[in-house]
Amino acid sequence: MLMKRLVFHLALLSLTMLMIPLALADPLPSWASGDNKSAIIDFVKTTTDPESDSYLPESRRIAVFDNDGTLWSEQPYYFQLAYALDRAENAPADTLSPALQTAVNERDLAAILEGGNEALLEILDVSHSGLSVEAFQADVADWLAKARHPDKGLAYTEMVFQPMLELLSYLRDSGYTTYIVSGGGIDFMRVFAEDVYGIPTQNVIGSTGNLEVSREGDRLALIKRGDIAFLDDGDGKPITIQRTLGVRPAMAVGNSDGDVPMMIWATEGEGPRLGVLIHHTDDTREVAYDRESAIGKLDQGLDEAASRDWVVVDMAADWRTIYAPDLQASPASDATP
């Protein structure tokens, strides 16, 4: 009898020792220790602890993320624009104006931006107008498999931020549902969102173009047409969240002024709320930019952050790794987990 009790207690002790490392495991290993990492972890812990005053039932654990500049890089131009530029470079003659075609061929971003939204829409239309949704997405998948970033030489899907992948996983493991809410095209992002981020296609919210139903015999197809039906940026973000989800998210993460309305709307709701801004400060491992940038401008957001108690992530200081460790693993200033 004594021997059985001894065996039982030894087994229990062994099990406890095995569980200790799991309990102490760092959910965000690529984040340097500090106030920002602690604030995120504390928010998740208190909103998932039934004994906490900040506890949220799983139905209210909703976190929304911008995509460009928040989950992956966005310089020197948005990656969907890189796709559109590649397709416009080989467009049939006279599809674009001669000046715009020259700017496209030379990747002259300043000249393209001088043309405003009209020029950008012209370029984007070339990449998809007249294609079925399936044909467009197959072409995007083929492009993502072959294209490389002009500066880093990496595949675009390799330029995903490792710390954000950890945050997405940590939230889902804690009962949160994660969504993308982006100004990028919804059909473009749905090609890779599940494989890259673990976010299913139905949880991707983005800008939508005009669609047309086409019937050929017994077959029905959705054909993409030109122009934007709804731009999911700025004030459009809280509108699409309300239309799609019907509730304010408990957590909103962005990186630019286009995300500010979404973050204000989310964090002004009742109960526990968290806003997180990704500030691109690392000119060595990525690109440093904010108030003056034509892409991913962060000006109003920096001004709003302090008064609204948002977490402002300093990429150079807060992230030990930018991309996956096997691609780039330079430590941040604080390399302590």
Automatic annotation (TrEMBL):
Signal peptide (UniProt feature, chain positions): 1-25
Domain of life according to the entry: Bacteria
Keywords attached to this entry: Signal
InterPro entries to which the protein is assigned, alphabetical: HAD-like_SerB (IPR050582), HAD-like_sf (IPR036412), HAD_sf (IPR023214)
Name of the molecule in the record: Haloacid dehalogenase
